[in-house]
Amino acid sequence: MYLGIVRSALGWIQLDCSSGHDIHEIEALENPDTDIGLCGWLLVGMSLLLMVVTLPLSIWMCIKIVKEYERAIIFRLGRILRGGAKGPGLFFILPCTDSFINVDMRTITFDIPPQEVLTKDSVTVSVDGVVYYRVQNATLAVANITNADAATRLLAQTTLRNVLGTKNLAEILSDREEIAHSMQSTLDDATDDWGIKVERVEIKDVKLPLQLQRAMAAEAEASREARAKVIAAEGEMNASRALKEASLVIAESPSALQLRYLQTLNTIAAEKNSTIIFPLPLEMMQGFIKH
C-alpha cells in the first residue's frame, strides 16, 4: 500500500524500448531490482515525510521540467528508477535521495578531423568527414558508457582509417557514397549498446600529396594528348578515303575533272588576285596520262 502511494506520487511512466538492443539488458536497466533494503525504504519514507511537512515550499524542489527534446534519468539511492527515462513534461523527485541527469535526444553533428590514411595501393591521403547521430535510448547512453559523445567521435576516427585502409586510391575518389554507407553500418553496430543511432556519415574532402597531384595531372594531360592525336589520325584517314572516292569519280568523267580544274582556278584568282596563272590545256597531258 505504501509502495503504491509512493509510486503514484512520483508519476511512474514506461519508456519505449528501441529496436536493435538486447531486450534483457534494457529490461534490467529500466526495471531494476527495487529491493533497496530496510534502510533505503526508511530514507525514502523520511524524504517523502520531509516533502509533505515542508509543503508548499518543497514543491519547487521536487517538481522538475523536461523539454520536448530531452529525457531525464532519475537515480534513487544510486539505482535507476523503474520506468527508465522520464519526459517530456513534468516529473517529481524526492529531496536528498533522488538525483537526475538530462539527456539531449536531438541529432548531433561533429566533424571527423583529417586522418592520414595509407590506402591499399600504398598511397598516403588525408581524409575528413562528418557524422550525424542521436541518442536513441537515454538509459543505455547514461548507464553503459561514461561519455557517449566522446566515444562516438573517437570510434568514428578509427572506423574511417580502418575502412579507407581496405580501399585503393581510385575507389576512394570514386566510391565515396559506398564508403560512407559502410562507415555508417559499422558505427551503428558498434554504438548500438550505447543507445546511439548513427543516422548519416559523409566524406567531406580527400587531400592528395602535392607530388601525386602533379603526377595525376601529367597523366591526365598525356592521356588527353594521346586521345587528340588518335582523333586527328582518324580524321586524316577519313579525309584520305573521301579524296580517294572523289578521285575515282572524277577519273570516270573527264568533264568533271575539267570543271574541278576551272573551279580551283576561280578560287585561287579570288584569294590571290595578284598571282598570274598560266593554265595548261588538259589535252597536252593526255599522252602522259596514258603512259
UniProtKB/TrEMBL annotation:
Family label: Belongs to the band 7/mec-2 family.
UniProt xrefs under PROSITE patterns: BAND_7 (PS01270)
Domain of life: Eukaryota
Chief location bin: membrane
The protein, known as: Stomatin
A GO term from the CC aspect: plasma membrane
UniProt keyword annotations, A-Z: Membrane, Transmembrane, Transmembrane helix
UniProt entry tagged with the keyword Repeat: no
Gene symbol of the encoding locus: stom
Transmembrane segments: 41-63
Subcellular location: Membrane
Matching Pfam families: Band_7
Ligase found in the keyword field: no
Residue ranges constituting the Band domain according to the UniProt record: 61-220
